[in-house]
Amino acid sequence: MNSVIQARNLRKRYGATQALDGIDLDIGSGRIVGLIGPNGAGKTTALKAILGLTSFQGSLEVLGRDPRRERHALMRDICFITDTAVIPRWIRVRQVLDYVAGVHPKFDPARAEAFLASTDVRPKARVKSLSKGMITQLHLALVMAVDARLLVLDEPTLGLDIIYRKQFYATLLGDYCDGERTILLTTHQVEEVEHILTDVVFIDRGRIVLRETVEELAAKYVEVMTRPDQAAAARALSPVFEREVFGRPVFLFSGVERERVALLGDPRTPSIADLFVATVKRAAA
Amino acid sequence: MNRTAVTLLRREIWEHPALYIAPLVVLALCLVGVIGKIGYLGGFVEDHGAEDVGLILDLGVAGFVVPFLMVLLVVTPLYLLDCLYSERKDRSILFWKSMPVSDTSTVLSKLAVALLLAPLLVYVAATATQVVSFLIGHFAIALSSDDGPSLLHSAAAVVDAQAVLVYTLLAVSLWYAPVYGWLLLVSVWARRVPFLWATLVPIVLIVLEAEILRSRHVADWIGYRIAGVYRTGYEIPFWMQSGDHDAFFDNAPAAVDLLAPGQLLASTGLWSGLALGAAFTTGAILLRRYRDDA
Fold it and tell me: What whole-number distance in Å separates Cα of residue A32 and Cα of residue A19?
């Protein structure tokens, strides 16, 4: 496994807030990693550090380079889409493609054009005349046409309707991922990316609170909904989290065999969102 | 020039079409003016003789440098103030930073627009104006008299006009390097109203100095940075300053005689200005690279 991102004790302070409080992170090539955390947890700061857009303390290597000193060289192998990196409104679609073709050695304009041909985005259109969904398609066309090693997505589908969101991830999974390329993404719509992730990293208040592969998650965590009168029996198995759904208690277990949990009700693998809520609430308690 | 450099310059023209539209507007206005005046030329030739009118015309062609210089000095500062401010205002800076282009290349491409591309576009429009009005004027003289200036003289006059134009665009652009660098720095730095910051800082310095020290070194220095090139880079001969018409025609003056490139190159003002321009530009590069709040 080639290391794509290697961070040691990453720290960053904005005034009184500790945005990153000692992050250690290793991401190998071919992984699709979801960086999940509440607002203000430090997700965006971590991504900005990885992209060489902000200063930080600690050591960080991305594709073998120091992003602070070599941002522009790094950008030959990294693509990013964030809701803060806006394609300017005055530019035309044709000009965006010409520009990227002119400055990016790994960009294949024919690929981007082919992708755009399947959308409603016309080459002559100005970006200001495009809908938000179409702008994302344009962004995606650029990303798909760059032979990059790391793709960083920060809330890439923010403000898009469900059809565009589904398309976005379908394209990403179907045409982009080839087992070599690495994706690091954050989103609030965890349930939409759940099926494409290989790894999850939960981050809260500048710290990593959980780091698992998706297979480990399925093997390790199990959730069960029981009748109220079985709650005591469930608590005896020392659940890591307990909540209530429609008046019935739901317990989350870590490292408890499914057969034992099955006595209490129907065992199921918790969703990443549920697991996240449990982990963060537990950390806060 | 490599492909990246060309692309970065093209991108600037896409965003700032005024860089070529403004010179084209001046070209159109000048030609409208020339064509409007053509009716009077016959009368002048009758009063003063075709040869003298031809000489004035030749000198006048060189005079088109003035409106074109003015448009350059309006368009370029406005461009510089906007170029690194607008990418933050429209939040496209992170998009540009997602490309494999260093901050140094980005900022230098903006400076290159001010020092090379904008003067080049003005040069093309001014040359077109010179050539067209020269042809129109001499055609009109030839219609009203057989006795115009020799073709050789007129051809030399076109070369002269070109020399004045090229020299002026180069000299003024280089002399204004510190002003351009300052505007770039303000453009990167200002959170809003870059125009106000760019002008307010020198004005406040001038007022503070006048109030506290009762002196005007800052004002003199800024005045020199703005007007110095027209004193240092040109030499107006005495007979021209005196307005003596006979001396004018006796000397059969060429516009190129007014240029003083040696004096300009020997002035410390030019070189200290270039150094200051480089310092401001370096500041702009570092600020764009290290600021966090983009």
Answer: 24
Q: How many contacts (CB atoms, under 8 Å) link A and B?
A: 81
Q: Which two tokens stand for residue B289?
A: 């690279």
Provide the pairing of β-strand A207-213 with A199-204: antiparallel
Can you give the pLDDT at residue B244? Answer: 63
Burial of A63 (0-12, 13-18, 19+ CB in 10 A): buried
pTM of the model: 0.88
Q: How many CA atoms lie within 13 A of B190 on its CB side?
A: 23
Q: In this structure, what is the dihedral angle of CA atoms A184, A187, A192, A196, given to the nearest 10 degrees?
A: 10
Indicate the residue type of A23: I
* Helix, coil or strand: residue A120: coil
B263 in reach of chain A (CB within 8 A): no
pLDDT category of residue B243 using cuts at 50, 70 and 90:
low
Give A72 to chain B, closest Cα distance, Å: 4
Evaluate whether A105 touches B100 at the Cβ level (below 8 Å): yes
Asked whether the beta carbons of residue B15 and residue A88 sit closer than 8 angstroms, the reply is yes
**What are the tens digits of pLDDT across the range B126-137?**
999 988 888 888
Residue A284 dihedral angles phi and psi, to the nearest 5°: -75, -25
CA distances (Å), origin A155, targets A83, A85, B99:
6, 11, 19
What residues contact A13, with CB distance under 8 A and at least 6 apart? A19
Residues 103-122 of chain B with CB under 8 A from chain A are 103, 105
Q: What is the CA radius of gyration of chain A?
A: 21
Task: Please answer yes or no on whether B99 and A95 come within 8 Å at the CB atom.
Answer: no
